[in-house]
Batch of 4 targets.
Target 1
Amino acid sequence: MRTTLLAAGLSVIAIPALAETPVLTVLTYDSFTSEWGPGPAIETAFEATCACDLRFVPAGDGAALLARIQLEGAASEADVVLGLDSNLTADAAATGLFAPHGQTVANTLPVDFADPLFLPFDWGWFAFVHDRSKLPQAPTSFDALAASDLKIVIQDPRSSTPGLGLLMWVKAAHGDRAAEVWAALADNIVTVTPGWSEAYGLFLEGEADMVLSYTTSPAYHLIAESDDTKAAALFDEGHYLQIEVAGKLAASDQPELADQFLAFMQTDAFQSVIPQTNWMYPAVTPTAGLPEGFDTFRPAKSLLLSPLDAQAARDPALAEWQAALAR
Amino acid sequence: MTRAVPSIIALCLLALVIAPLVAVALRGAGVSLGPADWAAVRFTVTQAVLSALISTVLAIPVARALARRRFFGRGALVTLMGAPFLLPAVVAVLGLLAVFGRSGLLNSGLAALGLPPVSIFGLQGVLLAHVFLNLPLAVRMILQGWLAIPAERFRLAQSLGFGPAQMLRHLEAPMLREVVPGVALVILVICLTSFAVVLTLGGGPAATTIELAIYQAVRFDFDLARAAGLAGVQVVICALAALAAWVLMRPAGFGAGLDRQAQIPAPGGWRSMADGATLAAATLFLILPLLAVALRGVPGLADLPPSVLPAALRSVLVALASATLTSAAALALALAVARKPSVLAGAAATLPLATSGLVLGTGLFLIVQPFTPPMTVALPVTILVNMALTLPYLYRILLPQARALRSDYGRLADSLGLQGWSRLRWLILPRLARPLGFGAGIAAALSMGDLGAIALFAGERQATLPLVVQQLTGAYRLEAASAASLVLVTLSFALFWACDAGGRRAAA
């Protein structure tokens, strides 16, 4: 009670100072800002160091972020955009709205990733997740999956970033054979959903044997629900990476604060929050390490198309996918 | 002066729909639709026509049975008819899966009998979901028509010794001819613009709708010209459907009654058995998925995050505001059209159906953004968009009865000099209370569940309940998301019930 009064008193005193507190606006996806996402903890930690007011503005998912920034153009209130993935950065760079981040890149990604405009903050491997108690022996490649009569749910690449990631995965792993792989997979696909949550929901309801998600999804069930039945199937051809990045807008009216935030993004205070709020790998492994069970499903090989290759591959891959599945 | 009001409302509505389209189109240049787009157009139209036909045809016997039978729980069943329509698409899909899915009730039953399982995915799944969502709406709209036939006509028919076949021919068929085209049109356009249900249950890229193509154009390709072109195609299809419905719709012309609450004659024998079976089947079809939704949500209620409360409050306020605005605007338009057919008003009340929340939201964003940060107007814009999107439903519900009111009492009221406020107070509101309450309920509940505009505009502290549901699922918290959906559905339903019951009480 006394502390509340004290806090109230202090906040009254603080009001004149508040007017001069600079505001840093970070545009990001919905689940990042929600109270169970990384947003709140990161806001507290950053505000303790910056003498500023950090504001997250949520805008749908990764693809919606890009659309939003293109809608707003240089008039955007945002200073930093956080949550694009490497399949979208070529398009983002082409808008000319982003400024070089100027940071020394020091990440622990399983591949080399350095981009002058975009700085990674977390990453994950796409994988098919299944229930060990119902499917003890999961297939170990796309071909084995296609040859089985297992049912899978995937996401539509036209409306979701994991769906787009799967297109890139097949392309990166099988190149010219991609169309063939899709034709073979077609009869395994129960349905295609608009987004990740519908697909994951269908899988948990038992409508499919496997669902396209991340190697870290089982860690959620293990850590948050003490359920160790979920597993990620490891494929011999390797797993495609989703690398989530942030960038500074050239038109930002707080460029120093934006730089400060990007630097903060690579520190322990930011990175240690990621695993158990965003359920992705932190871009820089925190000194305390990863939570137990987080690293259970670790593919031996990582696949990634460069942003430019991903951009070039998108339309042909989409056409192949549509042709194979639309019979 | 008052005569100009409906025209002003109509013009504002048209501006609200067309300006965003223009704003979106201006940002791009040149429109070209590929073969994939035309395939999407074909599939969209096919599934929408089938969904509308099946829903409307099945609704007729159900509405008839409800109109002429009296039984315990009838009132509850009529209210329940509002529920599926108000479910957010994704919640409805999960409810249907619990009944018709791979490990659902139906397939467990089939397996127990040694029969092969049926799949919910594919065109049959899309139709199943659309019938589940829209059959109840059709039943309620047609039931309004049955109740609007003056009881005296039925009494007269009985005293003339009409059998059920003649009753159908002289009383029920003319009413159906007036009401059914409007009902089918509303369902058709609802199905034309749906995409989450169609994609999830459709099974893959073969089940692509125009709406998904618009979504892709805006979200991934940022090809606003293409989005505007696709939205234009959607507008044209809906306009054609509206034209067809307008041609088919003929006033029934029963004349006025004394409003006695009289029992519609109910034939006995096998007909009473058939009515019973119809009602039982419809009830089961609607209630099982709803029950599944409720059962799924209950366990998570205990650990709902605190942000649910303010979000719910915000949603309720948005819903109430947009329902009030919509009711007033739809009433004005329906009364004006009943007085004098007006292409302007008709177009204004139909066109919003054809645009999508996404295009409307994107266009308004482009219009608003040079003047103020979109975040600051998130809630007013949401209210406005919801108003535009729900107005067509109310208009369709009100129009036939506004026409009847005009032809039955218009001359008397004119000769009494009953005009303006007193006409509204003594004639219009009491006589249209039932459809107004029902329509306002639908408008409020639809606004509750809307996610289109708010997702584009929302700031940090403006999340509505559907957005919170979305965030919870995104964070793997599916149990809490189910519970939040249950709260959402309960609140929508409570709002609908309050408006609907209010209307029925005022009419009684």
Target 2
Amino acid sequence: MTSTPLFRAARLALVALIAISALLPLAWMLIAGFKGKNEVLRSPFQFFPEIWIVDNYASILQDPQFLMAMGVTFLGAVIFTVLSLTVNSFAAYAFARLDFRGKRFWWLYCITPMFIPAMAILLTSFVVVSNLGMLNTLAVLIIPGVAAAAQMFFIRQFYLNMPVAIEEAALIDGASRWKIFTTIFLPQSQGPFVVVGVASYLAYWNAYVWPILTIQDPNLFQIMQYLGNFRSDRGNEWGLLMAGSTLAALPTIALLLVFQRYIVNGVRLAGMK
Amino acid sequence: MTSLQTLRDTVVTAEASAVVNLTRRRRGSHLRDNRTAYLMLAPMVVLLAIFVFWPLVYSIYLSAFEVSFYEEPVFVGMQFYQYVLESPGFWNAIGVGLRFALIVVPLQMIFGFVIASVIKGLGRRLAGFMKTTVYVPTVVSAVIASIVFVFMYRADGGLINWLLSLVGTGPFAFISDPLLALPAIAVPAIWLVTGITALIMLAGMLDIPESYYEAAELEGARFLQKTFYITIPLMKNVLLFLLVTGFVGALQQFELPLVMTQGGPVNATMTPNLFIFNQFKDPTPYATSFSITAALLLFVVLGTISALIFRLVKSDKAIDG
């Protein structure tokens, strides 16, 4: 590498520029939450507040609708993630390790949804869930997305790479396939499970369109739906909206920070699909 | 070679050993595997049947019928396909989608490549920090990005116009100007996807053997020469993959214009998905069939493109090329 001081200084400047571009909108959002009611839109623009106030954060945290939305979304996201990991890892194991009649057909069946864009079936999915009487329930937010071809595919890639020898030894010892799956495969799956689980959690937490189509009950409003409604209904309380958006983004960023190693490594496989 | 190669090799090896394993086993276990396999597949198969294949078949059915609240559905064959193809709104949306993708995809690729190159040259700790930093926007929702950028774009008191005023231009009313609105929603779109693009590119770059670069350095190659003669050619597959998935993704952008501009001003940001979504909510009769037909038409194309990339990425041709 060319390591003249000039080159290194230029590279460091570029690193700083990249970091700032990535984080500036979020930093601005966080700080705008500390501004007074009329200060967010003050002209000329000021990045930092004249006086830092916590009123916005304090009052959004006292808004029962906001708390409800955060709580319900969190609950839904956790259930969604657990169900999604279960269903997709079962299928992944069957495809990676078992031989059964009609395997090719079922493989095509399970993998085809990866190539069906969401919008192509969004509208009729709405009709289907409404026929099933699922509108305005937590189930409509959770169940339809649980089976996910891409996630099943990702876990299967991992299972294909597990050494065969252990499995053979277990079979000779008379272990059932189910026992092999639960005692050998599952404990080894933290890596792919973290990647797939975080992706599920994020998809649920950040979902907007499906909730606005299927949920009218304010008690079941999802967090992004809450923020979207807030912007159109109470758009003049900007500081409050910024505080709410910051708090709504926190769980996803925290998740990234906690699992960053797994996720960043997982990109390597996930990128190849 | 690329990670595609190694990925494929490991898959092939695993599949080969699975076959050996199978032939070794006694015949009796076949029956047991059948039952276990079906039980383990059942939840996925049933859920996909209800929530993917039923809606899909229903879409195809509806596209051939005129549906209204008052009468029984009437079979009209391909008539809705004709309506959609003759609708100026549909073609406007396709145009908007293509223009949007033409702004987003090249910039996403260039920024991603630069960021990946920079991270690759860093020391371990700073590289780790940067990987997480560039990933942060990717985990933020499109709704939050929309809200934040709407405020940053304000003509009066907005961050971006303030930055522009420092270099002596502006202010611009970004999202209410028909010419600027589309580029304006492209910025958060790029902000949201560049991190993951960069990380995938970085993974591809790290698979290129360091010895290639060392050899090139001995020959006196400079940074740009190494980039154009080693990095880019050896990452061809990764770049192609990102280019096409980026394109398919950008063409489907929907939430940013929905929250930021509602498709306006004067349909300047009416992306195909938003057009379809709005048609569906339109109260006029037959809007349902119209929007569903439009969705099918558009997405047969997109689905085919995705399936082709998938094949390409898995095929030998792509790997040897």
Target 3
Amino acid sequence: MTKFVRQLQFLLFLLPILVIYSLFTIFPLVKAFFLSFTNFNGYSKVFDFVGMKNYVRIFADDAIISAISYTLFFTFAKALLVTVLAIPLAMILDQKFFTRNLHRAIFFFPSIPSGLLLAYIWGFILAPMGSGVFNTILKGLFNIGPQPWLADPLLAKLSTIVVATWAITGWHAVLYLAFLQSIPKDYYEAASIDGANRLQQIRFITLPLLAPAMTISIMLLITGGLKVFEIPFALTKGGPGFETYSITQVIMLRGISETQYGLASAMSVVFFLIVLAIAVFQVTVMQRREQSMQ
Amino acid sequence: MTKSNKRLWILDVLMLPAGIIAFFPFYLIIINTFKTMQDAAKKPLSLPSKWIFTNYVQVFEETSILRSFGNSLTITIFAVLLIVLIGAMGAYPVVFNMGRFSRFATIYLLAGFMIPFQATLIPLFQLMSDLHLIDKLYGLIILYMSGSVFVFFLMSGYMKTIPRELSEAAVIDGCSVWGIFWRIILPLLKPITITSVIFQTMWIWNDFLAPMLFLNSSSKSTLVLEIYKAKGEFTVNWPMFMTLTVITLVPIFLFFIFMQKHIVKGIAAGAVKG
């Protein structure tokens, strides 16, 4: 009897999280899956099952295709850039130089404010006119005429990636720093006694021991990158054309603005599957790499 | 000067330009808040030809930044408190009473861990309007409570390090299930609670997508939403817009200064656990 009451009390502790999670995460996902096979428009109670039609339409929709390709490009380019920059930055910030703490703070701070705010600040720097800050600098230093940083398809894509990289590199450097500091100092002492130079030490001690950090960092970069919305939205509004449309933005456009719930739901399901597939693939591959390196 | 000292001094010199470039965007917006529109447009890079402070006065007079600040504060405080409480509560039976049902609950919660908010956006929008939660601050707070799943995993990972004997001894002393949680478990969770609070605070304070979708009336704007709306209003008046941005950065900066140690520890803890 008392055991039963205790179990019931324990159950009460789980109840809030299960209710919230079921209602706001699982139920909408299941419903998105269901709606993706219908022509529901958000208002009328009557709607039909249209089979795979919405899924077929995804691949005929220029904005959606553009959003998928931009989001994937953004995700991988940013993940690559941040990783290449954050690891050396972490190694430098691990040294005891005088302005170390100041530099840690400077690089880390951009990861604290909202991405929307940061993108607006950069919008001023990348303004296309001759008076734009970056164009003024280019004119002064190299006498190059004004460039349309946010209006040219390729430049706009690269600009969003640069801003996102600037914002998050310091955060990932701190993550690597935490792992660097857990490497025992005797490894390096032993290696230098054996005659290994600094580069060899990095190659054979530091990088292999950072492998688990890379798995986590890249996983966060990829899942975060696929969910990108604010930075391109605030910098370019998704333009020029659909060139910097993120998947999130196209789901909102087709779903909420145009009330094509069926199509947008199909897009959501595809998005979920992309996130799942890439994340599972990446973690599996990188964990295997960790084992082979140790 | 010893050899190692010299090398470190070189690092200072080498890192200086990198630091300046990283900080440059912030320098730029700060100096331009003290300029007139013409001055900012003509010479965006240089210091103001004449320092003016009217932009700051104007922002407080012409925008509802203080009300938005209050809205953001209300939403963040209530949502974060509820998220952390619900997450910790859920982890408690799963770690200390591993029955069949709690095992099922863990798997059920884990299954949805990868689901991005965006993938559920369309039905969520419908659900929120069916429940009459659109354009209500508490509607957004309820929506954010789904963040408790992340806290649940942080908490249950940490709780496993608490010896079971503690709760078993309390049971013998006649402590109730709720009493054990409140008086013994919760105080021991302090470090992971701080980590959870920081991550959830940053997410909710900075969020733009949910407020944009679920808050319509301007009296309910969050700070980030206020910035978004102001961008449309002050398209030509950059100094004014930047002043608004700088003012909204002040609380974030203070948060950063006071929490820096905990944020860094939190990233390390989350990463090593993850």
Target 4
Amino acid sequence: MNQFLKDRETQIVTKGKHSAEIACEKKSLAGSVSQRACVFCGSRVVLYPIADALHVIHGPVGCASYTWDIRGALSSGPQLHRLSFTTDLKERDVVFGGEKKLYHALCELIDKHQPKAAFVFSTCIIGVIGDDVEAVCRQVTREKGIDVIPVMSEGFNGTKKDGYKIACGALSKLVGTDDSYKPSKYSINILGDFNLAGELWILAEYYKKLGVELVSCMTGDGRVEQIRRAHKATLNVVQCSGSMVHLAKEMKEKYGIPFMKVSYFGIEDMSDALYEVARFFKDEEMMQNARELVREEISQLLPALQPYRQKLEGKKAAIYVGGAFKAISLVKALRLLGMKTVVVGSQTGNADDYKLLKELCDDGTIIVDDSNPNELSEFVKLTGANLFIGGVKERPIAHKLGLGFCDHNHERKEALAGYVGMMNFAKEVYASVTSPVWKFIK
Amino acid sequence: MILRHTTKEVKERSALTVNPAKTCQPIGAMYAALGVHGCLPHSHGSQGCCSYHRSTLTRHYKEPVMASTSSFTEGSSVFGGQANLLQAIDNIFGIYDPDIIAVHSTCLSETIGDDLGQIVGKAKDDGKIPEGKHVVQASTPSYVGSHVTGYANMVEAFIKYFSFNTNEKIRQVNLLSGWVEPSDMREIKRITEMMNIKSVLFPDTSDVLDTPMTGKYQMYPKGGTTVDEIVSMGNSMKTVAMGEWCSKKAAIMLDNKCKVPFSLTDIPIGLSATDRFVQALSTAGKVSIPDSISEERGRLVDVITDMHQYLYGKRVALWGDPDTLLPLVEFLVDIDMKPVYIVSGTPGKAFEKRMAEVLGEKVPEAKFKNGPQADMFLMHQWIKEEPVDLLIGNTYGKYISRDEGIPFVRMGFPILDRIGHSYFPTVGYSGAIRILEKMLGVLMDRQDATAPEESFELVM
């Protein structure tokens, strides 16, 4: 394996071969073709789906251009989040500071759009030139009477994961600011669903059938008013734990709201998510509703999956995604399709995630943290995978290698959550793996 | 109606850009470097920059795009990024084994004052650059210019590093391609071959970002201008530089350093610009224009005359890079269309002057703006004041197209939601036919879709 960076050896283990724990949460090596992004990216992708808030990027134009509407986080109402606002700093501003520019930009935007709140993202350069973004935000908050929340997400301040934490910090400034709301007895917040391809709407429907009220979703199809009263909910249900667990922990400390980690991908995890909530509320009727829902969905889904399973049985998959929790669900979902996971990795997994992954996977599975294209293509060759699950940068590599591909990051166009999502997943995997095009490769 | 927020009244803005018609320098530097054989672009800054640029280029070309990053941390931003870059150079040659690393800076590394030249010098002194391998560097702060500036800076950096005049003139012409698609690079080479001119095209992303499917993944595909070719550019007879914003800097560098005179011409988009390009080639290569090229031109003119009735007087709004917009707007004027609104986020004084020349008295109502606040919001406001029949520009126009119901032809960078740009050229005479085809396609589709029953016809 001389293809690999020597210093990365501890971040790659093979189940059954290495007994050591995988090293993770390390900074990427300088010079690596890492698939990871920065703090700003982490904050931006988490907060972006709050549709009635203003999102202003303070810095040179690039950070705003690259994040302009790149994530399919759907909104059932306002679309303000899909526009790209930036102070577009120039050399002069870098020398003399950009505070005034930010102040004027914010005032102009708030006057024009009357948003419910504003988030101001601080980029690399702001951290270096030392603009007092917090002071500007305080001033505009005072003058305009809306919350203008600084998001101190300078890119170099860590990894994408640190950006999640900062986004949670920004959200927590809104949470708890509306005390007047009285939710029903059984109420939850969904944390860490971004409503890609309308997934939140599927989940909301399930919870409604259980008799659970959704107070807020952070942050998919998000609304500022809902986030303000999120502390009134009885339970926090956290999906993308990598991004949102910080907020859940904080809300537990501050407001005494317990939280549970769930996943909505695959039959097993989706059903568990519903049962866990019903179990939490200790309500027999709710549990009955959950059982019925699961029974009904599965009785339709399983026979429908059968033809796909027959074709996919024994095929091998390689997974490289952002969050490790998602990878865990994927291993299970693939197993349901008769497929074996031979490579699995994530950009931001922690020790617990990897421990769980290792337990779950078969012997011989390569588990990897913070990988790069060289490694990934080598692993695929080594293991003879037929499918790659990843994000935008992995797709063309997988295709060049002659593999089927399924996007499980924020560029996917199909809802993959819930029972209908499992069906979509099966169809997509099937279509890609069995595509006739693979027979034309020389 | 995503753009419901767009107001009709245009108000002067000083502090705010809304929906930018540009992006920042490093992505241009990355694209230019990918046009060199065996080269790995390297982003000296935080990981996010590199990740965003790779994602955007991947989305546009649907191809693997490789680049490494210095992975800045808080420590690097305080103590400087020298240690990161030195380690990066060591790791990259050790593992990814490129022939060349093309380092570009970011707003972060520029502002903390990293001197790329000095750091690369130190890497050399420390023996971190293996024999026969190279590290080229360009300064590309994100708060100056745009992605086009970054492209120009990286092309210049390569010329500055490699090209050398050994006083042995070669019968060859340098072609600085400008920021065009791999398909366009291929077309430029085809035209030059038709004229029987030996040439070096630089950069050249054909066979890098449009590679065939083989079942193998190659980190360094077969395409790209080779080091030997770039070196030899110093001994060429002449340079034909396409695009003032993209290629002029490098042309001047070649002239100053190697005494290779240049002629600056537009990227050959449309009829007049291709005429001038072919003329420039013929002069530079000291050859006459072959019949085969005149015939291609003739076919283009034939299509224009055949289709004039559908095109004349149509009002068009365009956005993109200055080097693409100038010849494209000229082409529209040539075929009797009315390019009325034009924005380019890329700054540069020459834009307004040249655009005024191109539009001249023919389209006196035209509005055009470049630089700060020349963004898609302004474009939309203009369109709301008085609508147009056609939009031409990169993917970001799709919001306006949908909200206002205007037919839309995608051209420029980035195109994230269609394919074809990598495969079918829009330069040269045959490229111009493709532009016509695309415009006619969307205009006629609209006519078919909206014509009342009694006016709906088979023959158009």
